[in-house]
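Thread: Modeling a multi-component assembly for a lab meeting

Hi all, long-time lurker, first post. My supervisor asked me to bring a structural picture of a complex we are working on to next week's group meeting, and I have zero experience with this. I have the sequence lines for every component (855 residues in total). Could someone generate the structure of the whole assembly? Inputs are pasted exactly as I received them:
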Amino acid sequence: MSIRISDKILTGVEKPSRYIGNEWNSVHKNLNDVEIRFAFAFPDVYEVGMSHLGMKILYHLLNERKDTFCERVFAPWVDMEAKMRENNIPLFALESHDPVKEFDFVGFTLQYEMSYTNIVNMLDLAGIPLISSLRGETDPFVCAGGPCAYNPEPLADFFDFFIMGEGEEVINDVMEVYLKWKTQENLSRDEFLSSISFIDGVYVPSLYDVTYKNDGTIDSITPKDNYPKTIKKRIIKDLDKVFFPEKIIVPFTGIVHDRIMLELFRGCVRGCRFCQAGFIYRPVRERSAERLLELAGKLEDSTGYEEISLASLSTSDYSSLKALTEGLISEMEPRKVNLALPSLRIDSFSLDLMEKAQKVRKSGLTFAPEAGSQRLRDVINKGVTEDDLLKSVTTAFNGGWSGVKLYFMLGLPTETFEDIEGIAELGRKVADAYYQVPRENRGKGLNITISASSFVPKPFTPFQWEGQDSMEVLTQKQMHLKNIIKSKQIKYNWHDPELSFLEAIFARGDRRLGKVLIKAFGKGCRFDSWGEHFKFDSWMEAFSECDLDPHFYANRKREYDEVFPWDHIDVGVSKEFLRKENEKAYREELTSNCRVSCSGCGAAAYGGGICVE
Amino acid sequence: MLNNIRVMFSRGNDVKYISHLDMMKLFERAFRRSRIPIAYSQGFNPHPQLVFGLPLSVGVTSEAEYADFELDSEIKPEEFMSVLNRYLPEGIKIIKAAQRKTKANIMASIAAARYKVSLVARPVIEIKEIKDSFSKLLERENLFVNKESKRKVIKVDIRPMIYSLEFLEESVEVGDQETLFCLSMLLSAGSVSNLKPELVLNAYNDFSGRNIEIIKIHRTGLFVCNGDRLADPLEDNSFLAL
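Re: Modeling a multi-component assembly
Sure thing. I ran the full set together rather than chain by chain. Output:
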């Protein structure tokens, strides 16, 4: 039954458009014509969730099926949540306004660890039992995918199944099995879960037993009966052939990324050792410039958007960037559509491109050296030298730019105070480079921003064995850096180490964290990534009430032979390779990028993309 | 060859929470989808030549919004209307379109707006009593209310901005606990002096000591000034002497 939200409620909340739906290109279907109702849930507010490319793809992909109606669900903002609870309004889907509890599937996307309490909250608002084993025959199947699903264990209690890897094919495989299951009478939920567990890329956590050693580390993860020992990530081999929506929803109100997003490629050739995305999305696979231009034209026809942006992990590495951007500019300029460029490696080509494409003031360019010294940049395999950076900023200053943002991480493995001093030093050298550019060439008013985040060790990276610096050490490092940046032209920003600490816990957490999540949710934790709602003390209480030590997860350095909670998940990159990369990091040795030479990570087994070019 | 078109359009219930700026963006995108060649301004940051009569407050529906569009080429108004309607989201619909006859753009010309305001009185009040108290309100020469501007609250006399208040007989519903009724308000509007229905009600509540609440506001008309009379922005007839 469709839920009607009264005007009285809607006028009493911020941005009521978040809860209305019916936007241009949203999909509506007659419920009598469909067999499967799928609620695609994003555990954050509308403006954030609507900006997510993966959701746009899967929403339209599922709706291509005649038998399936996929709708959207977002986390209601705290004001709306309060009104929903007060008026007994359950979580509803945006298209039909039907309660999510009536659906066949609720599928969450896991983009960042700090959205986990929102998942618990949304299940609770929906009236769906939080714990998978407590769900009955009338409840939906609750599933998840996305980058955080590669270590699904902290969420193992809540989800009936996970999807590992790119969802375009595997989600259809699951729908087919579901249709068969649904038409046969008297089949239990477990029978459905059992049968999909044999689909490549599907992980049903309840079919696996985890045992622990006395020291708290994992002893073993074993499948029950004959279920698969490892779950292999799925990928799409050919991005030119896979579905990409030609229509996307145009919201009524501004969202974070309010534009057409063209996905140039998946994966990254670079292999920076701290970066999870650089490993889990391997191998690199590109979409052709022809296909992208075709998509751009169709998407512009269907949306009327005023801007198109390029999405990928490292756009400068796209091999047809010149052909693509020239094509886009010549096609889109007459239609009064802007090309929004992501941060590019700065050279004469990219500066020229920015000049042509962007109608913005020459204010800020972004660079991410990540570490302050060459030694530490070699440790993390960030193939950038000081010389590269200074050449780039000099080119940019000569082209009239005057603002530079520099991104760094504090707490990287092997970091010393000398490395940190290197950050301040680099800032000073960038300032010097500005003053060496003739006055008539450079823009007025130099401003440099140095931003330092805290390093969070992630699964499936060469640093998955590392301990995170304690919050005290991170704060000390931040303050040290603050004190040694003397120049008035340099602005310094840093991140809250408490949030990074919590992120580190959940990134490498195990099944025991499920109860902490429930406790934290009970203490009112939600929207943790929104500074104003982050309740660090409540989280620490939750840990102590569950008798779990958060430092065990975040700060402990692991032995090479430790069994990780995610060891039964296969992302294509071998643990052996990651271990070698870890050893090379300590020897300050670089690994070449995939385009230069193959380093044998294991992803070639997929037989796709750069590995077979 | 420029082509000026003036339209009247409606905004329904599901799209009533769109802000004025988002509404402009919505039209801009609809134009791009439709490929109707809206003219763009010159300069560094070109923007489409569209002008709306009077911003519609968030939460208010309307059957009579107006906008002027400048096009780069000749299109018949009927064709313009049928094409653009295909690219507008549900709830927003062009009802009339015509060549713009005046030089003045719509935003500069708006002088008055008519609203249908649905109200509720709790507990129940006799209709006669409500009518009497509204007539008494209008008998006053001045009606000072607090009007909030960006930084301060100022006292404004709104009496001259109220052209008429009509009680809509057919709208009355007397229940056990409440009386529902509607008023049609013709109020001064536009860039010179603009009065919102909420302020009229605040004045009434202050004056009568009652606490009548607004349930819904629906705009039924926008009018331009034609000499000393109000006129429909798309017709030549004027109907009300000021």
